[in-house]
Design brief:
It is a single chain. By secondary structure, the protein is of the alpha+beta class. 30% of the residues lie in helices and 26% in strands. The radius of gyration is 22 Å and the shape is globular. The relative contact order is 0.18.
Length: 433
């Protein structure tokens, strides 16, 4: 059986089991696995622990040798023979939800060929596809070298899960994550998340509340005037690394602000509505491989007599963390604020000519029937800090699946491709000759 025939067999298998596959996806979507490091259940809360238990249970059902890493992560090895040659890394935690959903975010809803629910694209849908890719390989009796599936519970809040995992067990020599984009995402921009604040007292605006997470474009900005009048500015949510896909309610509010607050006036100058590259902050860099950088004001709130904010930045691979840090901190401090917290990562890049990347591109071309190519994105995937690792799916560059936003979704067409891509990728790399 050649590889094209094998790909056709995989497709037939998944169609025959689609009802069962969607039932599994519905189970994990129903688990509210929003990470909370302050919860009584350690390390990331009861929901994260339940999601990991679900993942370990599914891997055990497949006959995999499982291990739980103190509820930071779980993993399953396909075989007891030999060290794993490939690792597939997915996360089962999600970002919070807002009140703007058209559907229950914790109930899988299918409508007009689209699956809705928190985690359908990031990363519970892809994780379910990986589970069923393994199941197809197991039930078809394919001769495989050992490979490993790893599920984590803290991707959305700093990847402390993988830092812990690496202390216990090393990654296989080849690793991909279904936490980015097809065809192969081999270039990830550097990332900065910072928060700032300053004492605030204003005779016109008494309170502001916008933004739930640093890595999400806020779709609502609630403002209370000194006379008690409330104003709601609405926009469109999007992932923080793709501000152009949304409409930032904070900068929309600032664009219309004409009051006397020097703090708000300073932010208005630094973050013009509709500007996505941070040029007004002194940034605006781009390069040929990773493209334009992004810079977004994603949080703005009044708390404890202070005006507090947060910024999401994704910068090109030809720039350093120290360089971007110096520029943005200088701009924010000049506007009258103090930097409270700072987190950052250098860019991540894997040579597209490596055999691993080329193997994934062959799979893409076989399954999709189109020429494979490498891409760069601003999103920090699960393998950003893993040397030699890349993202393989789960969405396509032309899609907007509302990742991190209201009505997050994945089309049935893309979900089917996920299933086929991951089964074929594992077979391409791990199947014995």
């Amino acid at each position: 059986m050649d590889k094209q025939q094998l790909s056709a067999r995989f497709a037939e298998y998944f169609e025959a089991h689609m009802d069962e596959i969607l039932a599994d996806l519905a189970e994990i979507i129903a688990i509210e696995s929003i990470g909370d490091e302050n919860a009584e259940v350690k390390p990331f809360g009861e929901g994260s622990a339940k999601a990991l238990a679900w993942g370990e249970g599914k891997l055990r059902e497949l006959g995999m040798a499982t291990r739980n890493f103190d509820n930071y992560a779980v993993r399953g090895d396909f075989s007891a023979e030999g060290e794993p040659v490939l690792g597939i890394l997915a996360h089962l935690d999600t970002v919070p939800v807002s009140s703007g959903w058209s559907y229950d975010p914790f109930k899988l809803t299918e409508k007009d060929g689209v699956l809705y629910g928190r985690g359908t694209i990031d990363d519970k849908g892809p994780a379910t596809a990986v589970i069923w890719a393994v199941k197809a390989i197991r039930e078809m009796g394919l001769p495989m070298r050992n490979f490993r599936v790893i599920f984590g519970g803290n991707e959305e809040n700093g990847c402390n899960d993988m830092a812990y995992y690496e202390k216990c067990e090393k990654f296989p020599p080849m690793v991909f994550t279904p936490d980015g984009s097809f065809p192969v995402l081999n270039c990830e921009k550097g990332m900065i998340h910072l928060t700032f604040s300053a004492p605030y007292e204003d005779s016109e605006i008494s309170s502001i509340n916008a933004g739930m997470a640093l890595n999400a474009i806020p779709d609502r900005c609630s403002v209370t005037c000194a006379d008690g009048r409330k104003v709601l500015i609405t926009g469109q949510s999007a992932h923080g690394s793709r501000p152009e896909n949304g409409e930032n309610s904070i900068t929309k509010f600032l664009a219309g602000y004409e009051g006397s607050s020097t703090l708000l006036g300073g932010l208005k100058k630094l973050f013009p509505h509709g500007e996505f590259d941070g040029s007004s902050c002194g940034l605006g860099f781009e390069d040929k491989i990773s493209g334009k950088m992004t810079c977004a004001l994603t949080v703005l709130k009044t708390e404890g007599g202070k005006l507090c904010g947060g910024i999401d930045i994704r910068f090109p691979i030809d720039r350093t963390l120290a360089e971007i840090k110096g520029i943005i901190e200088g701009a924010v401090e000049k506007a009258g604020f103090t930097i409270d917290t700072f987190e950052g990562m250098e860019p991540h890049y894997v040579d597209e000519n490596s055999e691993f990347v080329q193997a994934l591109l062959r799979v893409y071309e076989r399954v999709k029937g189109e020429k494979g190519y490498c891409i760069a994105e601003g999103g920090v995937t699960y393998v950003h800090n893993t040397e030699g690792a890349v993202a393989f799916g789960a969405e396509f560059p032309w899609e907007n699946n509302n990742m991190h936003g209201d009505d997050e979704h994945i089309s049935m067409e893309t979900f089917r491709l996920n299933l086929n891509m991951y089964a074929n990728a594992i077979a391409e790399i791990c199947m014995k000759e």
